[in-house]
């Protein structure tokens, strides 16, 4: 048994390292929502103006092209992805890429719910990517930019051709704002407010390229379309959705919170500043992992390693000799100790992922809080080892 690390004395100022809903921006307080249009209709002139402001500020921060449509849609990122899958898939075969649980969920939807006849599922184990060279862009392609539950992201957009024939549908919920997305390579892109910007949940964002709009206006699916998925009427895009006229009633408190995050983004340098903050966080985690023989990244290739949802596996000899069931129990105990000490909340690996840790390191997290967390991680690992080997 190794010598246990001493119990630390310095705690993170902010122990919120959850991968969703994620940490609020530094300095956030409930007072940030004081100007929310509570009790007002989202269809009234001020409400629509506030929703349109979210769209306009999103375009400005992310540099989304002027001819791309941006909409606020129901049901978080999940709702946004489902809207696209149900609305545009069918005219072509589709390549579905998955290397973690959410991508696998989209495969289930397309094969078992939509029951499309021509689907190629290209999958990889947690910690790896499928062979991107095998993707056929004469077909539609569905993928996550960053695997939130595996800590693995595509390295860039170079594998996507600009002259593709099919549409690219990208679940970018744990990537956008913290990673540079090549908009000319993406036709339908989705995310939620609750990830990199630390906003409130339940609302999704949907960005459509002109090619995606053309598909919507020239193709009618053969299956019934729920109301909250409908983006066209009479063969034309419902333009209001992309001007702040939401399909259903949004929370104006959540809208105010989204605006607060977008305004904060400007103060840290816009998208480049957000990317740098997240990269700095990954760098300090990397330095700790490289000096710690008890942990390793789930993503072995540094080029595909997420800088937001950082997934770690425990590789200490005492842990690796345990059964899978006992590893899960030991990892759960480790997370519980950190929670009890109030130094890190909600950092257990996703339920379908290998036993380990998942630490959110997106742009709203401060590097110094991660630095303060590491001694507690070392100490807690030692505590679990002592409990199991006593």
Strand content: 5-15%
CATH fold node name of the largest domain = Aspartate Aminotransferase, domain 2
Helix content: 25-40%
CATH superfamily grouping of the largest domain: Type I PLP-dependent aspartate aminotransferase-like (Major domain)
> What are the secondary-structure elements, in order, as H or E?
HEHEHEEEEEEEHEEHHEEHHEH
Radius of gyration: 22 Å
What count of structural domains? 2
The span between the termini is: 9 Å
Textual characterization of the structure:
There is one protein chain. This protein has 390 residues and is an alpha/beta fold. The protein has two domains: 39-266, Type I PLP-dependent aspartate aminotransferase-like (Major domain) (Aspartate Aminotransferase, domain 2), CATH 3.40.640; 270-389, Alpha-Beta Complex (Aspartate Aminotransferase, domain 1). Helices cover 35% and strands 15% of the residues. The chain contains nine helices and 14 strands. The strands form four sheets. Strands 1-9-8-7-4-2-3 form a seven-stranded mixed β-sheet, sandwiched between helices. The protein is globular, with a radius of gyration of 22 Å. It starts with 44 loop residues before the first helix and ends with a helix. The model has no long low-confidence stretch (mean pLDDT 97).
């Amino acid at each position: 048994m190794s010598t246990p690390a001493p119990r630390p004395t310095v705690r993170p100022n902010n122990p919120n390292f959850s991968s969703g809903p994620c940490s609020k921006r530094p300095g956030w307080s409930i007072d940030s929502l004081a100007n929310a249009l509570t009790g007002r209709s989202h269809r009234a002139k001020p409400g629509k103006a506030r929703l349109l402001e979210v769209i306009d500020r999103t375009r400005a921060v992310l540099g989304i092209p002027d001819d791309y449509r941006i909409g606020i849609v129901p049901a978080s990122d999940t709702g946004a992805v489902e809207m696209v899958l149900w609305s545009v898939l069918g005219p072509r075969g589709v390549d579905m890429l998955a290397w973690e649980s959410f991508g696998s969920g989209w495969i289930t939807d397309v094969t078992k719910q939509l029951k499309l006849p021509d689907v190629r599922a290209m999958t990889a184990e947690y910690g790896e990517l499928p062979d991107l060279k095998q993707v056929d862009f004469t077909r539609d392609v569905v993928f996550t930019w960053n695997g939130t539950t595996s800590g693995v992201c595509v390295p860039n957009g170079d594998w996507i051709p600009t002259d593709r024939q099919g549409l690219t549908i990208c679940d970018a919920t744990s990537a956008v704002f913290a990673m540079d997305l090549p908009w000319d390579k993406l036709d339908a892109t989705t995310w939620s407010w609750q990830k990199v910007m630390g906003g409130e949940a339940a609302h999704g964002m949907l960005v459509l390229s002109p090619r995606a709009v053309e598909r919507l206006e020239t193709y009618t699916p053969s299956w019934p379309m729920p109301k909250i998925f409908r983006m066209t009427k009479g063969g034309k895009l419902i333009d209001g959705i992309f001007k702040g006229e939401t399909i259903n009633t949004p929370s104006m408190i959540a809208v105010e919170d989204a605006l607060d995050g977008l305004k904060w983004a400007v103060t840290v340098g816009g998208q480049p500043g957000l990317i740098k903050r997240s990269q700095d966080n990954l760098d300090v985690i990397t330095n700790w992992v490289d000096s710690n023989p008890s942990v390793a990244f789930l993503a072995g290739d540094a080029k595909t390693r997420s800088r937001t949802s950082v997934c770690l596996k425990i590789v200490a000899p005492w842990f690796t000799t345990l059964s899978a069931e006992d590893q899960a129990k030991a990892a759960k105990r480790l997370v519980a100790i950190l929670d009890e000490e109030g130094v890190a909340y909600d950092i257990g690996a996703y339920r379908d992922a290998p036993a380990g840790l998942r630490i959110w390191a997106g742009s709203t997290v401060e590097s110094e809080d991660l630095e303060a967390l590491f001694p507690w991680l070392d100490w807690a690992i030692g505590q679990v080892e002592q409990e199991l080997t006593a």
